[in-house]
User: What shape does this take?
Amino acid sequence: MKRVAIFASGSGSNAENIISYFNKTQTAIVSKVYCNNKNAGVFDRCKRLQVDCVLFSREDFFKTETILSQLKESADVIILAGFLWKIPTNLIETFPNQIINIHPALLPKYGGKGMYGMHVHNAVKENKDSETGITIHYVNENYDEGAIIFQATTLLSDTDTPETIAQKIHLLEQEHFPKVIESVIQQ
Assistant: This one.
């Protein structure tokens, strides 16, 4: 059974969804969740789901082998679920095509440094896009430029606000992310 490590920086709704999905299907196991934000809601979700959630520092991630060493022992696949730091080269080289991210837009639109969460939804609204969606992709050395695995779209109307766009995106994430992860790791 494949071991999945999840990286999160925020509330952890996607992490919880992935953990719950694999607890039900038993097609993979979430071995650990890593978080770089001591105030993130993901800690409460992991505690409730009885999954170890580890807080780590910028130094642990970028300047030492601490996180890499842990991942080598406990993970086959790494999932970024609302994780906001760029992934260091040593992780990408150690886990080639084994790090998967979800982005709240249809890449290549609205990708890159600083394009996450409400920043993306505001940009979609400002540009009066008629649709948006999610992109699930492999992680490479550049923000949001890895090979696309899957995209799903949702239509937008003139009355949509950045907040309603965020709700539509959240529904797509919850529906598709765990299933796409499962299909990738079973290949």
